[in-house]
Hints:
The chain is of the alpha/beta class. It has a single domain, classed as P-loop containing nucleotide triphosphate hydrolases (Rossmann fold, 3-Layer(aba) Sandwich). It is built from 9 helices and 8 strands. It has helices spanning 24-35, 42-56, 63-71, 100-110, 113-129, 140-144, 158-171, 178-194, 216-232, and strands at 12-17, 38-41, 75-78, 85-88, 91-92, 132-137, 150-155, 207-210. The chain has a 5-stranded parallel beta sheet with strand order 2-6-1-7-8. The longest helix has 17 residues, at 113-129. The two termini are 25 Å apart. Bound molecules: 2'-deoxycytidine-5'-monophosphate. 2'-deoxycytidine-5'-monophosphate (DC) binds at residues 20, 42-43, 46-47, 106-107, 110, 137-140, 188, 192.
Amino acid sequence: MSESKTDGMPPLIITIDGPAGTGKSTVAHQLAHRLSLDSLDSGSMYRAASLVAIEHGIDPAEGPRLAEALGTVDLRFDWTISPPALLMDGRDISRRVRDMDVSRIVSEVAKCSPVRAMLVKAQRSIASQHPRLVTEGRDQGSIVFPDATVRFYLDADPRVRALRRVSQLSASGLEVDVAEVTEDIRRRDEIDSTRSDGPLICPEGAIIIDTSSLDIDDVVDHMVKAVRDRINDGVA
Ligand code: DC
């Protein structure tokens, strides 16, 4: 990992958890930009592990084998790009990991405890090198950074989330079928929130925001204010 743009400043970790399609990635990126922090998309790391499964022909149910294969690849972010590009053995896989073949298996992959253990460790290591960080995912405030300065939980109506994901995928030039995306979101919600290791939960003490009828700017404004209030209260 290259040096952080926040060198010399006090640590500030902000976590954003919630189900797919709540706007976490966009919000995390914009919040990081507004507060001059780095941003981490932890879901992209589970997507990279899924790509390893696809390319090595490993069944996602074979957790230890998949973790072993994941250990042989060099997974890192290029922090000189905003949002950071995800590199696997030097190859930019940022777009590739959004494809439907990856999305279809990623929740199964995210159930594998050996894979989770590796990625949780990698996320904490990233935070030690980028200590002023907005990180988003499913377990960032509950498991990975329970002592984060501010923890958010974003939620939204499932129909709104599916439509958002469809327009996001279409905008990035990917062919999408609305019914397939809706079903994919429903299935991933169920797997993510019922798995035994690091399930999607609302972390205790998190600030909950329902984004169903809010636009991104309103959500980010609200979060910037909450972070500043927390800092002014002397928490950070
Ligand atoms: O946010 P996303 O859709 O890119 O996440 C992909 C998958 O990875 C999703 O099914 C949940 C899982 N995930 C996880 O288990 N823990 C995280 N911290 C982030 C994502």
